[in-house]
Amino acid sequence: VNDRLSVMLKRAVMGETVAIAQLISALEARVAGSDEIRPELYEAGGHAHVIGITGTPGAGKSSLVNALVAEIRRRGKRVAVVAVDPSSPYSGGAILGDRIRIHTPLDPGVFVRSMGTRGWLGGVSRATIDAVAVLDAAGFDAVIVETIGVGLEIADIHVVNKADRPEADRTAAELCERIASSGVRNGNGWQVPVLSTIALDGSGVSALVDAIEEHLGWLHRSHEMDRRQRESAAARIRAIAKELLVARLEDPSNGVAFDEVVDLVTARRLDPETAARRLLWPKTNVVG
Ligand SMILES: Nc1nc2c(ncn2[C@@H]2O[C@H](COP(=O)(O)OP(=O)(O)OP(=O)(O)O)[C@@H](O)[C@H]2O)c(=O)[nH]1
Ligand SMILES: [Mg+2]
Hints:
This protein has helices spanning 3-13, 17-28, 38-44, 61-74, 126-137, 168-182, 205-221, 224-249, 258-266, 272-280; strands at 49-55, 79-84, 110-115, 142-148, 158-160, 185-186, 190-191, 194-196. The chain has 288 residues and is an alpha/beta fold. It has a four-stranded parallel beta sheet, with helices on both faces. The longest helix has 26 residues, at 224-249. The structure holds guanosine-5'-triphosphate and magnesium ion (MG). Magnesium ion (MG) binds at residues 61-62, 86-88, 146.
């Protein structure tokens, strides 16, 4: 195991901000040896409350996350943020008009990381998942992930932000109606709440954190947490396996030259399905 990465991981687990940032970068860049620390990294995690925030561009996600960070911090918890390609900068929890200001550069209880969308194919990228794993291992109580969504997602909690605007009440009422009429329940019995916030001054944010904590309690009580964790483990294994298989296809060390097989398929001397099987299992003489 790469010594430098191993030391970095140990420091990150102790909560050292610089090591946390370096480790996220190392995994993102897939530096040599980064795969070898994965078992230890994964084993150190599993304690953080991971909270996803999604919504249409400009809805106020980053502003709301800043307000959430301030409130969660006020409750004495360590909180980290992973923002996927945000257009707006993070102040790291210092929100104007709020009674609390947190100066993140000096507060090891807050960590904010932005990521680009390079290689992003929708959903949550591997780099994002890795960053969450590092922050989880680093002992943050909460890890917030901000991603841009289309606004049609089924959520555990719906938030109408910009409640200071005149149309907000109607939006919230319509949303309540839609949830009630569709009978949307996430899993066994969670009643999806619709909350209103003004991210800019922190209004409604304490009630939102209450709802998030209540939801966590329900996840545990109903065993929905176990179900989701199992589902997510299976989905990740499948996604990574697909990635590895595709990489293996073009790996010359597997004994079959990818380009030659492409030539055969192009000339119709081999069909694509048999070609793929032969590339993946070159030793077994798969005919069809
Ligand atoms: N009036 C009002 N404006 C808000 C509120 N929350 C955010 N804004 C403003 O809305 C704009 C977008 O806010 P962001 O927090 O950057 O929104 P976002 O959803 O993160 O945007 P993207 O990351 O680009 O998708 C900014 O100008 C904010 O100041 C709010 O509660 N009320
Ligand atoms: Mg944003």
